[in-house]
Amino acid sequence: MTLKRFGEKSGYTTAAISYWKSGRTEPRIADLEAALSVLGLELRIVESGTE
Questions:
Q1: How far is 47 from 37, CA to CA, in rounded Å?
Q2: CA-CA-CA-CA dihedral for 44, 47, 14, 32, to nearest 10
Q3: What pTM does this model have?
Q4: For 13-32, what is each residue's pLDDT tens digit?
Q5: Helix (H), strand (E), coil (C) string for 1-51
Q6: Residue 41 clears pLDDT 80, i.e. is over it
Q7: Dihedral class, residue 22 (left if φ above 0, else alpha if ψ from -120 to 50, else beta)
């Protein structure tokens, strides 16, 4: 899923995803996991080529 599509589906703008309200320059994993859970998705780290 692209960042733009994720933003459209979750209601976040791409700027919000990139910066969040914490002022960080990258999203925190916990913030991303929370946003994904709203969509019924989960973050999984897999080896390249396995999914």
A1: 22
A2: 20
A3: 0.39
A4: 766 666 655 566 556 677 78
A5: CCHHHHHHHHCCCHHHHHHCCCCCCCCCHHHHHHHHHHCCCCCCCCCCCCC
A6: yes
A7: alpha
